[in-house]
């Protein structure tokens, strides 16, 4: 009975002993398989694994485990490092930006226009100092898109037998600003000297509103008016300071491409006296920027100094150079 019960157990031990245990592959085989795995050559890897299993059949499971472990490790992606922030781009002044800046400066400079003229010639007068003398004048205009500045200077000088019989000077500055296509506000400062008309110096300040009635290429006309203040130093030694009103008109008519007529008239009116001033001229183009001008000036003082004539007239023939 004891023999019969022990027989199955003995048979089980014999079967287990006959089954080979999985063994580790030799180190040389392991290194050879690892080199084949890393080479990436699938055909070469299959050949190495097949011959390794034939040479060491007991290590087949260990070889398969080695191949599987390598493939699993290769399939797991390595963590990607976080990208470092890109450095801030340094401001670069490109050639295109420089070109635009220069172009803007040129356009701004081109928006401001300069024009003017110089005048020199002779005159003849009637009134307080009749005779013939020399006349000179200078006019400059600076104009922007919606503003303008006009500067004017004029001088008449006359001597008879080495005695000065006429010495008249007039300087003025007139800025204005356009608030629409035709309307503008203006300011006017003026200095005069004419002792033969009864005053050593006369200063005038005015400001007001102007309007362009005609703006064509061949016909232009503008009017302006406003309050004024005048300070006069008379030849008698007395000073006058009065408030006045100013009204003026400017006309330009281009008759032909070479002939132009102009008229500039103004009136100062106050309690003491009124001054009317008018300059009419005709210009004829000569050569290039040169032109000849014939002008006629009338100045009227309603209350002149004692012994002075109320009206002076001046006829001028001058050569004008425009710029």
What does this structure look like?
Residues 1-21 have low confidence and may be disordered. The protein has 5 helices and 12 strands. It is of the alpha+beta class and 323 residues long. The chain is 24% helix and 52% strand. Strands 1-2-3-4-5-6-7-8-9-10-11-12 form a 12-stranded antiparallel β-barrel. It has 2 domains: 2-75, no CATH class; 111-322, Porin (Beta Barrel). It is rod-shaped.
Task: Pick out its properties.
323 residues, single chain, rod-shaped, alpha+beta, Porin, 12-stranded antiparallel beta barrel
How are the SSEs ordered, and which strands pair?
Blueprint (H helix, E strand, L loop, with lengths): L1 H17 L8 H13 L2 H14 L4 H16 L19 H17 L1 E14 L4 E13 L3 E14 L2 E16 L4 E12 L4 E17 L3 E16 L4 E18 L2 E12 L3 E12 L4 E12 L9 E12 L1
Antiparallel strand pairs: 1-2, 1-12, 2-3, 3-4, 4-5, 5-6, 6-7, 7-8, 8-9, 9-10, 10-11, 11-12
Helix pairs in contact: 2-3, 2-4
């Amino acid at each position: 009975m004891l023999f019969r019960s022990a027989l199955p157990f003995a048979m089980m031990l014999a079967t287990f002993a006959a089954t080979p245990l999985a063994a580790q592959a030799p180190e040389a085989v392991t290194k050879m398989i690892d080199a084949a795995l890393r080479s990436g050559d699938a055909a070469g890897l299959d050949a190495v694994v097949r011959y390794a299993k034939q040479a060491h059949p007991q290590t087949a499971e260990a070889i398969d485990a080695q191949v599987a472990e390598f493939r699993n490790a290769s399939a797991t992606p390595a963590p990607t490092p976080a990208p470092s922030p890109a450095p801030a781009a340094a401001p670069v002044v490109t050639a295109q930006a420089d070109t635009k800046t220069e172009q803007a400066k040129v356009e701004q400079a081109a928006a401001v226009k300069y024009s003017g003229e110089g005048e020199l010639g002779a005159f003849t007068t009637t009134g307080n100092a009749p005779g013939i003398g020399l006349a000179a004048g200078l006019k400059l205009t600076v104009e922007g898109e919606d503003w303008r500045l006009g500067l004017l200077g004029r001088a008449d000088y006359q001597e008879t037998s080495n005695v000065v019989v006429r010495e008249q000077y007039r300087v003025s500055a007139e800025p204005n600003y356009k608030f629409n296509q035709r309307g503008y506000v203006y300011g006017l400062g003026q200095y005069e000297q004419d002792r033969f008309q009864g005053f050593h110096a006369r200063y005038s300040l005015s400001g007001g509103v102007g309007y362009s009635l005609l703006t064509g290429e061949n016909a232009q006309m503008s009017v302006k008016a406003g309050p004024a203040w005048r300070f006069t130093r008379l030849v008698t030694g007395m000073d006058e300071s009065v408030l006045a009103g100013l009204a003026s008109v400017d006309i330009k008519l281009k008759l032909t491409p070479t002939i132009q007529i102009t008229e500039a008239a103004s009136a100062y009116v106050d309690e003491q006296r009124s001054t009317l001033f008018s300059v009419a001229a005709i210009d004829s183009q000569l050569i290039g920027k040169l032109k000849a001008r014939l002008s006629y000036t009338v100045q009227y003082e309603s209350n002149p100094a004692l012994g002075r004539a109320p009206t002076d007239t001046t006829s001028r023939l001058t050569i004008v150079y425009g710029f």
